[in-house]
Write the structure tokens for this entry.
Amino acid sequence: MKYYHYTVPAYLKRIIEDGKILLSNPSSKYVKPIVWVSSNPLIELTSLKGSFDITGEYRSLTFEEQNGMVGCARIEIDPKVLIKWSVLKHKAGYKKIESKTGVSISDELEADIEGNPNEWFGSLYPITEKHFLNFEVYNGKEWVEFTDDYVVPNGGMAQRDFEELAA
């Protein structure tokens, strides 16, 4: 099994330059930040960016939309530094804290967010380059090795193009 940190090409370039993947900003001040990783071989749905459509409603981009707008990238991660979600949610405090509905944050994430929690992994520490195994970008058909001359497919869509798609 392979494990990937999904991102966009602009962030991938910065991660390579910095030599590490930083912890995400947690959604609550009561939980620890995590570097998120997935075993999904195509895309981790929770990693897709979102945008407002012309009606003002916020929604996640599809894999194809994101790839056309800003591109899709991933870093293969050495599994030795990863913790599976079933353990990580306890270590990071996601299982302890209850939301306004009386349900733990982890239960809400698992119920409300697209994606498969069985594919979720992470680290409570930044993941450094010594644990990077491979860098890839999606070329519209398949994942290929990342090179410095990578260009977003179709030249990247403008925000207005996305808004028209979402209408």
Confidence is low (pLDDT under 50) at residues 158-167. The first strand starts at residue 4 and ends at 7. The chain has one domain: 4-166.
